[in-house]
Amino acid sequence: MNRKNSGAEGGIPGRPSPQPPTVDEPTEPREPLPPKPDQSGPATVSPTGQETGADQAAVAQAGPYLTTAQGARLPDTDHSLKAGSRGPVLLQDHHLREKITHFDHERIPERVVHARGAAAHGVFQGYGTAAQITKAAFLGKGVETPVFVRFSTVLGSRGSADTVRDTRGFATKFYTTEGTFDLVGNNIPVFFIQDAIKFPDIIHAGKPQPDREIPQAQSAHDTFWDFVTLHTEATHHTLWNMSDRGIPRSFRMMEGFGVHTFRLVNSAGATTLVKFHWKPKLGVHSMVWEEAQITSGMDPDFHRRDLADAIEAGAYPQWELAVQTFPDTPEQTFEGIDLLDPTNIVPEELAPVQPIGLLTLNANPSNFFAETEQVAFHPGHLVPGIDITDDPLLSGRLFSYLDTQISRLGGPNFAQIPVNRTHAPVNDMLRDGMHQTAVHRGVAPYRPNSLDAGCPFQAGADLGAYVEVPVEVPAAKKVREAPDSFADHFSQPRRFWLSMSPVEREHIIAAYSFELGKCYEQAIKERGLKVLANIDPELCAGVAAALGLRAPGPTEPLASVEPSPALSQLGQTWPLDGRVIGIVADAGCDLDGVRSVRQAVLAAGMVPLVVGPDGGALGGGGEPVAVQRTFATARSIEFDAVLLAGAPGPAADAIGARDAKAGDPAAGRGGESDPRVLLMLSEAYRHGKAIGGWAGADSVLAAAGVPAGAPGVVTGHGEEGTLEEITRLLGSHRVWERFEAA
Ligand code: HDD
Fold first, then answer.
1. Domain membership of residue 306 as a residue range
2. Would you give the DSSP letter of residue 636?
3. For 345-370, what is each residue's pLDDT tens digit?
4. Which residues form the Catalase core domain (predicted)?
5. Are 138 and 323 in contact (CB under 8 A)?
6. What CATH number did the domain enclosing 655 receive?
7. 187, 315, 522, 726: least buried by Cβ within 10 Å?
8. Active-site residue among 121, 186, 303, 413?
9. Is residue 667 within 8 Å of residue 657, measured between CB atoms?
10. How large is the ipTM?
11. Catalytic: which of 114, 236, 285, 378?
12. 642 and 548, same structural domain?
């Protein structure tokens, strides 16, 4: 304890700070805790002293001998302590009780929303382009800041499927030198509600129905549609969910949005209103609905796997952080758009999206629970230079996150969990509480004090303190109401609809038809159509036809709005990093072609997966070709394009194939094909994926019902020409011409 020098008192917010006396700080910044033995690398030496060759980072245990949590070595962890080998188990078996008790408490409550997620570590590099509008140090030119990013679905439980139709969370923790900044956003730029007080209502409506707890991770049920059709401020967000944005191809191919308007402040105290955007380098791409549904069954971990695989392969996903900027006027509107209404976007054509830094995700978490599950984001984690606005949705969030984390993470000390620790020095006066792991020193965690020489001191803005922008609060009456400008629920959805290409509109109509078609209540379907009529008659008529109902007319005049071309996902060419090409072959196919195509796919930064009838390798001249997927384990959903290196025959486990093979060694050549290959091709065709084949593949394509010469079906070019054409097609993600509307 240091009681030297009773020294000066701390500063007053907004005024220059007094200089602290030069004494050792009695309450030193808390160093990050050293890792516990079982968090550091495990021993690579066996009890007998031999090198195990185990990878330090990959093994679970820290030493050669198994111990209890108290460090006592254990002679046996497979048998309970009993009175005789056939006798009763004894209560005095401390090891049994410790092991089972810990196991019983391994689970913590899942997040009430966004329970299902996947995350990665990375780095953010500032471009310095925001220096004029914010003093945030991490946005400075070339400044590198470690980050942790968690992507999530909203409605499903922890074990639900990744590819359901839903909004995706996109939460980023920047470990800046000035404290942690969390940008807790979504892949959709608007929200269902304008006021946080309605959050429990929208979530209760969207979650599984409380009587039978179904459906899981779906919005296609009565209570969701009951709420969003009665509560029309949800129309814009719902429309985005029904568009292709609701079923992303990959977390790596999603935009992110801060949703609310934030207030940036520069070192001179000048403020600018901004909306944050994340722009993926790979472009914005989606699944088609049938593909997403099949994926939910075939590979419920599809997005989680895709992110981890890409990072492991070194195909690090990148996004640019960007801002739209607006003058900070008292009205807080831009071109007539209310910036405090989170159901609004500002079209990019009206306010350009200006890049201010680059995010690269380059490392997978080493422990899902410790990092992805225990990470705690909070929109109130702000750094100097970034402030909030009075968006009523944001205000409620500022309360909710800390509150939920206290119960989810078991008390108020979760900031000490490694993934939540700030990288800035901490010198708080928060003490004790559940799961306290810091050993604080001193006797005076209060201020003012004299026992610790008046320390710690309060900093002013000049010493890097977070000082709220002193915005004017207009004199007003205390009311429970929304401003009139929040009452326009249809002009923004109409703009979104008008900005879609014909194929995207076709998908939206199909999505509403599916979701409303899954409702039992006729009144909800009819009310759904009334909402759609206020967006657009074509949309309403398409859905009404699918539901077998009459399309109603609008209840208010349709808004006259300009489309925003930036909202469409079509029409551009994108990089192919990490795209997956399935190459279907058997031992009788053109294996030289398979070898050279594999090399070319790898060289293009994509992933080639050879799909063979059975496991192992395909032989026949030259190096054997390893099979990565079999007809039994592969499905079209795994591939962005499918290639046929000839006319493969059926696998040994195909129904009836054994007999065919036994009788005719050439079974399959030009005739019989494995039904699973035919299914793969017909699905790939329906889902708008590029398909190619050479060396006699045409007969298999014909058997699969893939029309020769159809858009994006490449034959008659040899393996090299086929891949070239497929690569070109993949640049626009899908063969859009295949869809009826096109
Ligand atoms: Fe929220 C989690 C994003 C409105 C209350 N929210 C959560 C996560 C994301 C968002 C990405 C997951 C964070 C993680 O990966 O751990 N939430 C949003 C966005 C919103 C939004 C973009 C609107 C613009 N949220 C919102 C409101 C409330 C909440 C209005 C409550 C009034 N959100 C929560 C929460 C969660 C959460 C209950 C659940 C787990 C957690 O916070 O830590 O507090």
1. 117-188+246-420
2. G
3. 999 999 999 999 999 999 999 999 99
4. 67-455
5. no
6. 3.40.50.880
7. 522
8. 186
9. yes
10. 0.99
11. 114
12. no
